Amino acid sequence: xxxxxxxxxxxxxxxxxxxxxxxxxxxxxxxxxxxxxxxxxxxxxxxxxxxxxxxxxxxxxxxxxxxxxxxxxxxxxxxxxxxxxxxxxxxxxxxxxxxxxxxxxxxxxxxxxxxxxxxxxxxxxxxxxxxxxxxxxxxxxxxxxxxxxxxxxxxxxxxxxxxxxxxxxxxxxxxxxxxxxxxxxxxxxxxxxxxxxxxxxxxxxxxxxxxxxxxxxxxxxxxxxxxxxxxxxxxxxxxxxxxxxxxxxxxxxxxxxxxxxxxxxxxxxxxxxxxxxx
Length: 278
Prior knowledge:
InterPro entries: AKR, AKR5G, Aldo/ket_reductase_CS, NAD(P)_OxRdtase_dom_sf, NADP_OxRdtase_dom. With about 280 residues, the chain is α/β, with parallel strands linked by helices. The protein is about 40% helix and about 15% strand. The protein is built from ten helices and ten strands. The termini are far apart.
């Protein structure tokens, strides 16, 4: 396992692209000042990975935040996602152009299929492969794909997804899916790492926070990284953005990693990839 060293450390994707293993998620950050300041604060503090999506309706603000920061675009790992209503081959190509236009950039570092929309995600993936071959995206991947979705996609895909972004936290480890992705060279990434705030109610988390003299958020985010999982906690508050990144002066023991693994109960706080209607 690669050492977790600092805020700008990376995991290498199967095509050789270096993906920063820690980033800022901007889900629910309002377009305009809120997301602009969040992105600027994160980048100026040392973050180099920003994760947005068409459906978040804040790509314009994200692009502005990057331009107004002290960081060059080429040094930012910028991620967006194609929404379900835009899935399909031609419509994905159009949606990608629209995202680039809103972000004010001419390429993405990573573009994801946001959900496994039945009957469409294979055509969507072909569009991503085309954009990747045209060098308009440095890496392509999926989000919310369970093992059977991935296996189905791989029956026709020319390119294996580089990333699978999933709900991931101590109540939803999905170790079998983690192992499958590792076997296929697909980098695992966490969304909702803090269990939509429910992580703060767990006594075991309070105990670990006291043991390591860290916050509960820092404990669980460090666990993600030690599991080899890229993580993108979302916040629009500067102090939280800075605190979330304070993960590199301690390490969880192997016993404590296993303790958190053992909390797994297959519980989702977000939608089920096998049963969503949007």
